[in-house]
Amino acid sequence: LDRCSLLPIDHFFLFSKRVITPAGIISASVEIDNGKVVSILEREEAPSKEINGVPVMDYGNAVVMPGLIDAHVHLNEPGREEWEGFVTGTMAAAAGGVTSLVDMPLNNFPTTTSSELLKLKLASAAEKLMVDVGFWGGLVPENAANLTILEELLDSGALGLKSFMCPSGINDFPMTTGQHIQAALPVLAKYGRPLLVHAEKEQPGVKSSQVDKDPRLYSTHLESRPNSWEQEAIRDLLDVAKDTAPGGKAEGARVHIVHLSDADESMQMIKKAKAQGLNVSVETCTHYLAFSSDNIGDGDTRYKCAPPIRSEVNRKKLWNAVNDDFFDLLSSDHSPSPSDMKLPEEGDFMRAWGGISSLQFVLPATWTAGIPHGLTLEKLSNLWSRGPAKLANIYSSKGSLEPGKDADIVVWDPESSFVIDENYTIFHKHKLTPYAGQTLYGRVITTIVRGQHVYQEGHHATQPCGKVLLAKSTS
Ligand SMILES: NC(=O)N[C@H]1NC(=O)NC1=O
Ligand SMILES: [Zn+2]
Ligand SMILES: [Zn+2]
Q: What is the pLDDT of residue 211?
């Protein structure tokens, strides 16, 4: 156990004047024993150095809150570990205050589309995890046509499924139509697990390779994936998601739209579907809240992702939606590649890999972008811990600070800033990121996973003791 933690003791107290609990922000001591939160006691001042021989860590005015849960990460291992990997990805997570993440079923090779392939994932993750990691399985035409494969994948512990309504960018992860999704939803309903959907649909007339336009212009990328792609996919998706309504043949399944960028009609459709009782939820990503097309330089492919980052007007609408509690959760969609695949020299948006590298920065980046929009610490915490825990069905043990739950905690200083420059250590496998050079508020001081101090002020525990998070079989 010692090497799993920089503070190898089982039983201790944390004190802070800002502990984020489901009942609000309080000045309190949090007792942690054997990996769990045991008690949270309101008190104005730090107790002495110890209570009955149990050490007290006084964090003063720093924020003590549930560790972030990033439900949308591409770790790409096995098969593309030169893109990211379990070791580097989970070290970056720990350094960023992320205590659990859920790995996407693609970009790894082979993709995670059957029980056997999930077992490959698990074997490959063994002894590499600095934080806890769950897995989404992939829904593709092949297993949508053979529901036994899907059931086995869910029996093996996939927390839910993910599919694409447009080409995924990876040849071995083909897209699904509304019909494939409709076929899979009753299976997900039986297991009570979600389907996550990349909702973009190619429109006739708009080619993602706009051969006649200058591929170095950001506008070429933006125009190649207009918001109508999101709107048309979401229209199709919500049509089949009707089956999730009470009494429907997929009641108990949840349809979750990942990485929404369009703040216009897509948002209106989702609101309406929720109001009608469909079991639908939605996330956006830090980069849609932090960046806008108005500020992306031509040739700067670090910002290339799908759906694309849209206008400043759109970004403001996304923040209004955050403030109106439209989003159920936030995620990173950390999807890095080797730097040369971003074609930094050519700056060709049409040919560069689409995916943004961000996992280590989501806490300070969300906070920094949110300050001018009145983001509160509680809302930040709900979007980054409670929401994703509920999506992944791990809220009984994670996602909030409450007695009985896992002691997954980030201690951070929202008022302290840092610059992502050459003195700052990025733990991602590749250092190319649009956050480079930025000044961010929200320095992570300590990250605790099940009571173990896995990260503190630039240092990690020497042994990776993260666990895999598998769904318990319900069938
Ligand atoms: N395959 C993959 O990771 N695609 C992701 N990248 C991105 O920008 N959007 C995605 O869905
Ligand atoms: Zn996607
Ligand atoms: Zn993704």
A: 63
Q: Please give the structure tokens belonging to residue 70.
A: 């990033």
Please name which ligand lies nearest the alpha carbon of 107.
Answer: 1
Query: For residues 72 and 104, is the Cβ–Cβ distance under 8 A?
Result: yes
Asked if pLDDT for residue 204 goes beyond 90, the answer is no
Q: 280-285 and 329-331: which strand pairing?
A: parallel
Average pLDDT of the chain to the nearest whole number: 96
pTM of this prediction? Answer: 0.98
CA atoms of 299 and 345, how far apart (whole Å): 8
Residues 6 or more apart from 307 whose CB is under 8 A from it?
200, 225, 227, 229, 230, 259, 260, 261, 262
What is the distance between the terminal CA atoms of the chain, rounded to a whole angstrom?
35
Domains contained in the chain, CATH given: 67-391 (3.20.20.140)
Q: So what's the pLDDT on residue 380?
A: 98
The answer to whether the CB of 465 falls within 8 A of the CB of 105 is no
The Å distance, Cα 160 to ligand 3 centre, comes to: 14
Ligand 2 centroid to residue 163 C-alpha, Å: 9
Instruction: Give the Cα separation of 232 and 181 in Å (integer).
Output: 15
Query: Tens digits of per-residue pLDDT, 246-297?
Result: 999 999 999 999 999 999 999 999 999 999 999 999 999 999 999 999 999 9
Instruction: Label residue 207 by pLDDT band (50, 70, 90).
Output: low
**Beta strands 194-198 and 254-257: pairing type?**
parallel
Q: Which atom of ligand 1 is nearest to the CA of 173?
A: 1
Phi, psi of 260 (to 5 degrees): -70, 130
